[in-house]
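We read letters as residues; the fold follows as tokens. A sample entry reads:
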Amino acid sequence: MFRRRFWVSLVLSVPVIVFSEFIQDVFGYTTPAFPGSSLIVPVLSVIVFAYGGVPFLSMARTELKNREPGMMMLISLAITVAFVYSMASLFLPGTTPFFWELVTLIDIMLLGHWMEMRSVRQASGALDELAKLMPDTAERVTESGDTEEVPVSELGEGDVVLVRPGASVPADGEVAEGESSVDESMITGESRPVDKEPGSEVVAGTVNQDGSLRVRVTKTGDATTLAGIMRLVDEAQKSKSRTQLLADRAAGWLFYIALGVAAITAVAWVVAVGFEIAVLERVVTVLVIACPHALGLAVPLVVAINTSTAAQNGMLIRDRIAMEEARNLDTVMFDKTGTLTKGEQGVVGIQTAADWDEERALEIAAGVEGDSEHMIARAIRTAAEERGVQRASVSNFENLRGLGVRAVVNGDTVHLGGPNLIERLDIDRSDELVSFAEEAGSNAQTVIYLIRDESEVVAAFALADVIREESHKAIEALHGMGIEVAMLTGDSEDVARAVSEELGIDQYFAEVLPEEKDTKVEALQSEGKLVAMVGDGVNDAPALTRADVGIAIGSGTDVAIESGDIILVDNNPLDVVRLIRLSKASYRKMQENLVWATGYNVVALPLAAGILAPIGILLSPAIGAVFMSLSTIIVAINARRLRRVDLSA
């Protein structure tokens, strides 16, 4: 709308400028006279005022109705005064209309708003990009087994849809048939495709890769993960931070300041030169210069770019004030399980007998545990896969309830189990294995033994909740920023101490019940610290709510967590570092923009009032409008530089 009105007004303004007496005098030319030529300037000026000025007058009426004066009232006041004065000058001898100043003022105001809206729209493009991820139609499987193409809006829970290779998943659901890999980067930020099989969850908008999937729909429409993300992004863009509220108040103050300066200017000039047209020109110029375009754009544009940048990096902002507060954090408290650790058992150490190597032991252990779904079995198989070790072929597998498992490998009977199995078989361990088990026990790790022929312990595996590789980097980066790191866990003192020492955590709280976590956060706050709590957003809800900044991490397909101020989609502690860096960079841009916007007014208002008139320096309304628009452009460019900020950790 602003773009269309700008171009129409600009075209109509050209004849006004060309036929203006002032412009003719400056450039030394004379326009040809013909019947009606004297009406070109006023008639076209009226059209420009009515067409180009309407948006400002309309928005000013809203500000007046709400008793919240701002830039629209200033703009409307300026162009109305200019218009009324110019029209009056047609009938008052000795006065000089400045229709050309009026139309150029409106043109520049329209241009500034067009640029502002265009910049904000581009900054908010994350919502458009998210919306593009959703397909318009889906292939629904009928009762006969055939497929029919239907609009996504017609899908209901329980429907089964066919998702072909390269197609987008139309709704949240569960894989009923088929195996494939799915690109979930739009949800998790992780570029690696995720393997899917029957029972796996899939999310609307993600892209199927190489195999066909039949998906049973569990959520549709506004209930889907993607819809939730879009809702959070939209809410965050509409919400206001403390800095933005300050800018809004400053615009209101500027309205009264502008009226005050205009009044003082009028009185001073009347006293100095009497009531002349120059007095009104000074008043109009003051009002033009005071228009807070740049001030109104300074913070909202940074907020919009901040929100879209955060969303592109897997950070969903529910509370803008919390995002702004993140820059001041001096303590970050992590929940251990599922946040700093993977929340699943993994092999963290292997000790073998003298004539055995780790690869051989892992090969046999993975083979024995090949068909078990027990978490220890999965941990051993995962360790073998990560090391590229093939599972040994086994036979005569047998589960020994409460003790472990038994199988035959290459003719040897092999047992795999814990200390109870060692005790039942009454087998001695070597000194190396005893020492290994004692050290693992001191760290609250589980030890599993590999036994051959019921007589020889050939290897021991230590299992524990695996620490994420990213946790080391995250804590190191936080320390580099001067931020203390604390850890909460319901695990034992030994486990908490071991994890804390390995990661270099400053302090930890062990054996903490979920309902007690918020008291630990409160204890740190009582020391005068600004605390962020990072947890899974479910059992950490009280602590997330209590913290100055609640960060729900690893929400995955549950983006509607109500307890967190900020949601990190991926299970990556490094995103906390990126969040703080983005908060610092955004606030810095807000400050820079506020300096540009208010600093411009501080300098320009006295010049517009005529403080340097004794030495021949006066700002005309049109020149004032040009300077004002330049300030707006600078603020817009500076805000867009936020897109290039380095968030790498």
Summary: The first helix runs from residue 2 to 18. The two ends are 42 Å apart (CA to CA).
